[in-house]
Specification:
The protein has 559 residues and is α+β, with helices and mostly antiparallel strands. 33% of the residues lie in helices and 25% in strands. The strands form four sheets. Strands 10, 11, 12, 13, 14, 15, 16, 17, 18, 19, 24, 25, 26 and 27 form a 14-stranded mixed β-sheet that branches. A hairpin with a 2-residue loop joins strand 5 (75-81) and strand 6 (84-90).
């Protein structure tokens, strides 16, 4: 007889069959349940391929707004995402609330950075519920930088598609790299984690914050600028080069051109690290000095998974002060199956010295607190719009989105128990090969470990699979084949040219978060502690030959 799987959680029912969002249970400042809680079944990032399709979809969106004028509110709100103005037009109260919290308004951006902003949006997103004869769907036009959502109010997909669209503009027009990753500063050095889900990115980034001399930078998304040093010691990011022969090179292409034309003549329009435009003669760039990488944070308020409490219990107070999305009620079956984890988190909360945690949760009855903890990680896609300033004091967080941190160290995280290497420096071919394949622990392929990219996923994967077949047949590294390919997808060309600059500017590591397979380790807590010690070792090391295995790593971490 087949075993009946018990449910792990439950959501309150919708108030009507066609609702796309409705109130959840009373937890946090608010909790909104959305009918769609992951990527829509219909999703198309290449609508420009079919003549007239973009115009048809846009007309459907505009017609719905016009037909419901006066009966249904429509919200319009512009935000600035790393200097790019993005406009959201939606009839969802939930989406507009999260949108306003997540990003800087033009006025907030000017106050925070002192930078000017464009008057008109470069990207527009329509997100409309209640559109008849349309499925739950998401569409993207690269040609017009337009995104259209129908009949879904799940904020996670809207955010990810907008970030992908912004990333394409930043790479092609400005040479700025958009990365799905987390960043922490330690003693003035930026540490970047790039990782598939389930390999310890949050554990590593929040765990590093337990060390002195650290500042929290980014939780999920980072912008990186690759700067050249001028003879006058300015750090400048080339945006456009005009040669004396009249050739124009823009965006990410500037980096390769400068390497191949060290004696090139012309002028370069650049951005300095504060985002001010600087135009210089090419001869003023000191190309003998190495490229430098600078990271910038993205979100004003972080949209993150509430299961953060499992690895960082002190965040629970801030989460409960936040607006939430899709936080369910955990079932008794889930609580019973996860008793050890729940009790461990409960013990840490009871012992916490964080004033907010003690004040809010210190006197809660144990059963009530256990139910609360359970609800925050019963569903993997439950989210909070969290102000990191409620977790760490202001001196330990980046508050100006245009404050750069010099990146020195990059960790590609994985969880591969069969690999005895736990920390090793990655040469270029291995670094790029890992990112091209982007294989997650469950075998899924995500190029650059990034599902947010606004690209033709099928075309990219077909191209990479062809390279893999060639690599297996010839033994030649995947990235070397990529470099020689005649016509790779433009999206891959721009992404991996920028990753090549990252490898030139930083020390890149393979970090295998699998220390629990060391027989001498008796708990997950000890494995996490020693993994963090490995990270510290990597930050402090500058040797390109470092390679630590399960057999020898303890000699480097002191425990």
């Amino acid at each position: 007889m087949a075993t009946v799987q018990q449910p792990l959680y439950s959501f309150p029912p919708a108030h009507s069959p066609d609702a796309v969002e409705w109130p959840g249970d009373s937890i946090g400042r608010s909790d909104v349940i959305t009918r769609t809680r992951s990527r829509t079944r219909v999703h198309d990032k290449v609508i420009d391929r079919i003549p007239g399709r973009r115009e048809h979809l846009l007309n459907r969106a505009i017609a719905h707004i016009v037909q419901n004028a006066g009966r249904q509110p429509v919200f319009l709100h512009d935000v600035i995402i790393h200097g790019i103005r993005v406009r959201a037009i939606t009839n969802s109260q939930h989406l507009i609330d999260f949108w306003r919290q997540n990003w800087y308004s033009p006025e907030e951006w000017i106050r925070a950075t002192g930078s000017s902003v464009d008057a008109d949006p470069q990207i527009v997103v329509y997100a409309l519920g209640g559109v008849p004869d349309e499925p739950e769907a998401a569409y993207y036009s690269r040609a017009t930088n337009t995104i259209i959502f129908f009949n879904t109010s799940y904020y996670g997909q809207l955010k990810s598609w907008v970030l992908g669209a912004v990333g394409r503009v930043l790479a092609s027009d400005y040479g700025i790299h958009s990365i799905h990753g987390a960043c922490v500063e330690r003693n003035g050095q930026g540490v970047l984690y790039i990782a598939p889900t389930g390999t310890g990115k949050s554990t590593s980034s929040y765990g590093l914050m337990t060390y002195p001399g650290t500042r929290f930078h980014s939780d999920d998304w980072v912008y990186v600028r690759y700067a050249r040093v001028s003879h006058s010691n300015q750090r400048l990011v080339p945006v456009e080069i005009e040669t004396n022969e009249g050739e124009i090179i823009r965006g990410y292409r500037c980096n390769r051109w400068l390497e191949e034309h060290p004696d090139g003549r012309g002028i370069a329009r650049c951005l300095d690290l504060s985002n001010h435009e600087v135009t210089i003669d090419l001869g003023e760039l000191d190309l003998r000095k190495p490229v430098e990488a600078y990271a910038y944070t993205s979100e004003k308020i972080f949209y993150l998974r509430t299961n953060l409490v499992e690895n960082f219990p002190d965040a629970v107070d801030a989460i409960l002060r936040s607006d939430l999305e899709n936080v369910p009620s955990a079932t008794p079956e889930f609580v019973r199956a996860n008793t050890a984890i729940i009790d461990s988190v409960l013990d840490e909360i009871r012992a916490s010295t964080h004033p907010g945690v003690r004040q809010r949760l210190g006197n809660l009855p144990t059963d009530e607190l256990r139910a609360l903890i359970s609800s925050l990680f019963a569903f993997d896609n439950a989210r909070a719009m969290l102000d990191i300033g409620q977790v760490f004091e202001s001196s330990r967080i980046f508050q100006n989105p245009m404050e750069p941190v010099r990146l020195t160290t990059v960790f590609l995280l994985k969880r591969t128990p069969t690999d005895p290497v736990v920390l090793g420096v990655l040469p270029l071919d291995q670094f790029m090969g890992r990112l091209l394949i982007g294989q997650t622990p469950d075998g899924k392929r995500e190029i650059a470990y990034n599902a947010y990219r606004a690209v033709d996923d099928d075309a990219e994967q077909r191209f990479v699979q062809e390279l893999e077949a060639q690599s297996q047949a010839t033994g030649e590294p995947l990235y070397q084949l990529f470099e020689r390919a005649d016509d790779p997808p433009e999206s891959l060309r721009e992404e991996f040219e920028l990753f090549r600059q990252m490898h030139r500017a930083t020390l890149c590591y393979d970090l295998n978060t699998t220390l629990q397979h060391d027989p001498a380790i008796t708990s997950k807590k000890e494995a996490v502690r020693l993994t963090l010690e490995l990270i510290i070792r990597g930050i402090e090391n500058r040797s390109p030959d470092l390679r630590l295995t399960l057999d020898n790593y303890r000699s480097q971490v002191g425990g």
